[in-house]
């Protein structure tokens, strides 16, 4: 699934996967979230990544349960996170926007 970043103010927006229908909280153990400033929140742990994005960029998130990975792509950079899920476990694309006016466009 891909999203195009329509508006990002000032510099923080997150795109990723929610494990179940759960609200994002800092250090959430239910989310894998790539932030626009080059960090990934992996089930509550922050990991630095070369993948960054800004306004007008497209961010792609790929969850592959059979391979046990979540892959992020933006600006010709890629970061893969291992993730073991049960087949019945729910996972959803999510966007976290902290500032009024931020917006994304869901791409098919």
Q: Would you give an account of this structure?
A:
It contains no helices and ten strands. The model has no long low-confidence stretch (mean pLDDT 87). It is mainly β and 108 residues long. The radius of gyration is 13 Å and the shape is globular.
Round the Cα radius of gyration to an integer and report it: 13 Å
β-strand number: 10
Tell me the strand percentage band. over 45%
Find the structural class using helix and strand composition. mainly beta
From the N-terminal CA to the C-terminal CA, the straight-line distance is 7 Å
Q: What is the average per-residue confidence, as pLDDT, rounded to a whole number? A: 87
Weakly predicted, low-confidence segments: none
Cross-sheet strand order for the largest sheet: 8-7-6-1-10
Which bin fits the share of residues in helices? under 10%
Q: How would a crystallographer describe the biggest sheet?
A: 5 strands, antiparallel
């Amino acid at each position: 699934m891909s999203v195009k970043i329509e508006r990002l103010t000032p510099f923080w927006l997150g795109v990723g996967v929610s494990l179940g229908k759960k609200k994002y909280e800092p250090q959430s153990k239910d989310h894998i979230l790539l932030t626009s400033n080059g960090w990934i929140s992996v089930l509550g742990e922050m990991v630095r990544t070369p993948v960054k994005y800004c306004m007008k960029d497209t961010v792609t998130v790929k969850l592959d349960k059979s391979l046990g990975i979540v892959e992020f792509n933006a600006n010709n950079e890629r970061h893969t996170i291992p993730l073991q899920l049960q087949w019945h476990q729910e996972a959803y694309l999510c966007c976290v926007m902290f500032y009024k006016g931020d917006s994304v466009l869901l791409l098919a």
